[in-house]
Structures are given as C-alpha cells and as structure tokens.
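Quick one, tokens below. Sequence please?
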C-alpha cells in the first residue's frame, strides 16, 4: 500500500519566515503526511498572506497579540486579542491581510485539503458547503486544544518519537473535530452516528494479524483502516474503544515485543533489529525501549543471555 508523501512547508503560508519571526521547530523532515505544524515566536508584523489550498489553525501557546484580519474576497474584517489557549483560523483558498501587534508564540497547524475533503465526502455525503470553516479569531475550543497539545508534544519530542502512525491518527481526528466545531453547515447527528459505529470482530482480527506481519513497515492509518474495512477518520477512536489500547500504543508494544525476541534469539546487530521492527534506527529503538522497559536493548540482551 503506497504511502503518501510528507506535507511540505512550501504548501503553507510560511508565516514563521516573515521578517522578525523566529521558527522554533517544525514538522519538516518528520514525514508527517496529513498535517504540517510549526511553532514560532512572532513579532509585530503586517502582511498580505496569499491563498493556499489547506486549512490553517493557529493556536496561541504563549504571549499575546492584538490582531486585525481582513478577508478581501468577502470584505470581512475581524479584530481580536489572541491569548494563550485560543485559536484563529486562516481559511483555505483565501487571501488575507493581517496586522499583528504583540509577541505571541504560535503553533500553526495545516490540515491537508484532501483529508478534509475525504471527511466531508464520507460523513457529509460530499456536500463541500460543510467544509466552509468559520473564520474565528481569539476563540477557545477545548477539544481541538487537546489535539493541538498532542501535536505540540510530538513536535517537541526528539525526532517525533510517536511516529507517523500517531500523527496520522491525530490529523484524522483533528479534521473531524474541526468540521464538527467550526464547520458552518455541519449536521452533528450525522457525525455522531459515524463516530459510534463499531469495527467488526473479523475486522479487528484482520488488523491485529496484519500489524504482526508488517511491523517492519511504515504503517499508515489509512492502510490499517482499509484492512478493517472501516472509516480511517474514526478508526483510531474505534480501535482504542474495542482493543483497550490506542492504535499507536498497540503497534509500539508489538514492536518492542518483537525486538525483545530478536535480541535474545538472534545474533543480529541492534541496528538491524531496529529496522526489522519498524524503528527509524538504533537510537529510536533505544529511546522507546528504555522508556517502556527501563533498560536499553544492549543491556537487555546482555542480561538475558546471562540468564539463559
């Protein structure tokens, strides 16, 4: 199953690169497929931001700013104070004019256009009017905030230790929640019905079997949902509800169990075992292995061999 390419920064507004702004960290190079994220410390700035294809959510992490935004296409002008834990949106396919007075630290989250369209097609029968997001500024959205903080934690982690499967799940959940919370024409009963459907027992077993045969591969949420014959947008939530672990946690656990087996039952180098169990390299395996077991792969192998 083909893997989608990374969401590149060139498809964003690149606000972090404006004069005076300082990029702290971004998802560039992490292989994230459906969401692009950047964290930047901004200074007062004004600019016309060109239209891009993708919806942008701006989440204020620290500091504050008074913002004036004009959407020339509609003539709408909005002014508000952006404070920590509040959101703003930059609608897709829309040029916007901005005046920012202050020094906030802002995380920008871009949801890939095709992902949003897939949610609309599946949940709202392809009615693209449902994808029209309210142009909010300085508003709180508690459920979206939980997802944004999860993305921020992953963004700050060394080499994105949660992996692409984890960020896939976050992106799909965020797309659904964004449409649910901010979509102008969303029919909430339809979204709630889609979220409550269960994966069949056979579908769950197919996924568990598939994961065990593909631990060395770059597993994607879309691929696993396809194995289960279930919506990728609600798959991670249904999997956790029915299996008792998040999809990401389950896959990592199985990878560590396979690594433990190979460390004791083979003489392959740890760098090779890392690749055979789906980690990006020996340092990635070591980091996750130590976090979950309290020891390193090398220490585990040495101790285990002495016991044997």
């Amino acid at each position: 199953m083909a893997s989608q390419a990374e969401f590149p920064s060139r498809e964003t507004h690149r606000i972090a690169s404006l004069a005076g702004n300082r990029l702290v960290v971004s998802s560039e190079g992490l292989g994230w497929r459906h969401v692009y994220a950047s964290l930047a410390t901004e200074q007062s700035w004004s600019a016309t931001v060109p239209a891009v294809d993708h919806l942008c959510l701006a989440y204020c992490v620290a500091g504050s700013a008074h913002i004036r935004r004009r959407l020339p296409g509609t003539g709408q002008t909005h002014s508000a104070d952006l404070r920590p834990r509040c959101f703003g949106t930059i609608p897709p396919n829309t040029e916007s004019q901005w005046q920012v007075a202050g020094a906030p630290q802002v995380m920008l989250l871009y949801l890939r256009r095709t992902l949003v369209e897939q949610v609309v097609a599946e949940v709202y029968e392809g009615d693209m009017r449902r994808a029209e997001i309210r142009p909010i500024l300085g508003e709180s959205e508690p459920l979206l905030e939980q997802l944004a903080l999860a993305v921020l934690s992953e963004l700050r982690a060394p080499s994105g230790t949660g992996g692409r499967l984890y960020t896939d799940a976050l992106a799909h959940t965020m797309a659904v929640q964004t449409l649910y919370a901010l979509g102008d024409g969303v029919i909430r009963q339809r979204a709630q019905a889609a979220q409550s459907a269960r994966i069949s027992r056979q579908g769950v077993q197919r996924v568990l079997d598939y994961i065990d045969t593909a631990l060395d591969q770059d597993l994607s949420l879309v691929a696993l949902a396809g194995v289960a014959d279930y919506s990728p947008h609600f798959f991670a939530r249904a999997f956790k509800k029915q299996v008792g672990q998040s999809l990401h946690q389950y896959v990592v656990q199985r990878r560590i169990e396979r690594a433990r087996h190979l460390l004791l039952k083979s003489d392959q180098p740890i760098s090779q075992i890392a690749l055979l169990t789906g980690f990006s390299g020996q340092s990635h395996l070591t980091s996750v292995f130590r976090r979950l077991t309290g020891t390193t792969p090398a220490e585990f192998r040495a101790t285990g061999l002495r016991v044997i």
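DSSP finds eleven helices and ten strands in the chain. The domain at 254-307 is CATH 1.10.10.60 (Arc Repressor Mutant, subunit A).
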